[in-house]
Amino acid sequence: MLWVKSFHIVFVASWFAGLFYLPRIFVNLAMVPPESGAERERLLLMAGKLFRFMTPLAVLALALGLWLWLGYGIGRGPGNGWMHVKLLVVLLLLGYHHACWRLLASFRKGANRRGHVWFRWFNEVPVALLVVAVIFVVVKPF
Fold first, then answer.
1. CA-based nearest residue to 15, from 70, 52, 46
2. pLDDT value of position 22
3. Residues 38-43: contacts with CB within 8 Å, 24+ apart?
């Protein structure tokens, strides 16, 4: 079980690295002047490669988390209400991941209408979700 837990943590941390960095690329894309086609294409290439890299990391993190939960019973039974919050955080992260995919598609089509300030705030969402998840997993308040 400790091997599964270790790799779960590694893949979660790696997935979060992508969730932290991809919106920073969006900030830069939102600031690219219209005449800077090469810069825009380079940032789109970086964003696309990062998204393709972080998606399998998310799948592995989820699979290992399910293994811990369903296979080893971590977070199951009485006194494990914290797991409900963690699962909610995971669902919100999956929604955020999907939102990143849609925003990337919008940038690729040249249809983005949001400014760099919006993306700076959007970039804070995974930070807040990580804080909530870590507190509930470590402290287990209920």
1. 52
2. 98
3. none
Quick check: 34 pLDDT over 90?
no
Residues in the chain: 142
Q: Give one DSSP letter per residue of the chain, joined into a string.
A: -HHHHHHHHHHHHHHHHHHHHHHHHHHHHHH--TT-HHHHHHHHHHHHHHHHHHHHHHHHHHHHHHIIIIIS-TT-STT-THHHHHHHHHHHHHHHHHHHHHHHHHHHHT-----HHHHHHHTTHHHHHHHHHHHHHHH---
Work out the average pLDDT over 55-67.
98
* Token pair of 103 as six digits: 């925003």
